[in-house]
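Notebook, p. 212. Picked up where the previous page left off. The plan for this session was modest: take the two constructs that came back from the sequencing core last week, fold each one, and keep the raw output in the notebook itself so nobody has to go hunting through shared drives later. Recording the first one now, exactly as returned: residue sequence, then the structure token string.
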Amino acid sequence: MIVDAHVHLLPERIAAKIRRFFEMHQAPRLIYPYSAGAARAALQAAGVERCWSLPYAHRAGVAAGLNRWMSETWRSDTFVVPGATVHPEDSVAAVVAEADRELGLRIFKIHCSVGAFPADDERLDALWRHASEKGCPVVVHCGSAADGTAAEDEVAAVERTVERFPEAPIIIAHFGAPALGPVADLIRRSRRVYADLTPMVATPVHPPRSLIAGIERRILFGSDTPTVGISIEDSIAAVRSWRLDSEDEIAILGGTAETLLHGAG
């Protein structure tokens, strides 16, 4: 099973606003339509069998409504696993509790660049406690640069969170590119840190084979559909180009994502 663990199937108004942002900043051509239905169809056409749809909040007061939309729109869809988000200026404990108990959302995404906060912002402690207790995966875009790239000190902010909440399953988006080495080191030093291979718009995230040796089963496939200039098929082919042992390849292309999801109680 191919599971795309980094997709954004979002409300039309938000999706259109994100697309305008990239167009205004002269990003490379984004090859998929931004509407949720069209993006979903593109994923299926590429052979993806399940996807995680990850929302993110750019300011306080947005997350709760977005989480409700995610649950209402995708909760009964067997192809889409809807995620939740939160912003540190929200009542974090309340937003997280509603997402879990009322909306049944089992994945979270936080975006440090869009939300303008560091990964180790202590106002997010309620999220990390929830993730630790429930085994709920949290995808963290730790880079704060406008182009989404991460610096080593931003990976260090994730590490400080890991030190305080070692049982929280944390997935570092885009493998923390270009800080690939520090992310791989953090994975090796931790029990529950993972990374995804999501491209940076039109730049592939494809660590050297030597860098991922021994941590293959802590890596997840992601395409960033629809905000991406690389095809889903090409991102899948990049994983297969490593010529890994079959069990490791299966883990990256979906097995690890499924294991994390089933562990989120």
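Okay, moving on. Second construct, recorded in the same format:
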Amino acid sequence: MTRGLAGRAALVSGASRGIGLAIARRLIAEGMRVLLVARDAAALAREAASHPPCVAVGHAADLREPGAAAAAVGCALAAFGRLDLLVNNAGATRRGDVLALSDADWADGFALKLHGAVRLVRAAWPHLAAAGGTGVVIMIAGAGGRVASADFAIGGSVNAALMHLTKALADRGVQDGVRVCCINPGSIRTDRLAARIESVMRERRISRAEAEAALAEAAGIARFGEPSEIAAAVAFLASADAAYIQGAILDVDGGWVRAV
């Protein structure tokens, strides 16, 4: 079943791998044209080459740089002539002892995932508002923004900020005709999760299966999620099926977050 997204255009940040790549591929499967933005130019080129011309366009950029967001939006408009959907997915933060993380660690954590997202929204907003009611912004934050952890203070703080930003933008979006929502992925099978599993294996001197089971048990979940499951949630929120959903924060986490 398609979501009625065919013919529309999207910009997906952090789209060279993991969740961002899965989102881009799902939107393309729904008939959208997608600008894939990330720092890995080679990966973007390979992905774009695997689709028909002008369906997937790669744009290499470091969204920590102040002018990168506007340039990315300009590229999307030049390629597609319109912009209906912005998916802010880019950004990884450093884990570690909350008292040992440096000022530079904190600054870098906010530079891409929060400040990059803010700049993309500012650049894209007029075009999303001009889309005639189909303009949507989707933030990909994370369940760590709801569940505090001493070794994920930067990531949790950034994710919490993105949730607040979602609500603020949704308030503005009511008058401008732009819907804004947020998805909080839980433990999703990406390179980052694989690195965490490897770390637990080394620290506890246990097998991969044991490390995976330990992480799942700690989160109180039955299994890890797949990037495609986050992509499916994005496709729903971007579609007319979600037309009355504004400012929603959707936990796609297997039941990890139990707070009301």
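Notes on construct two before I forget. The mean pLDDT is 95.
Flagging for discussion at group meeting.
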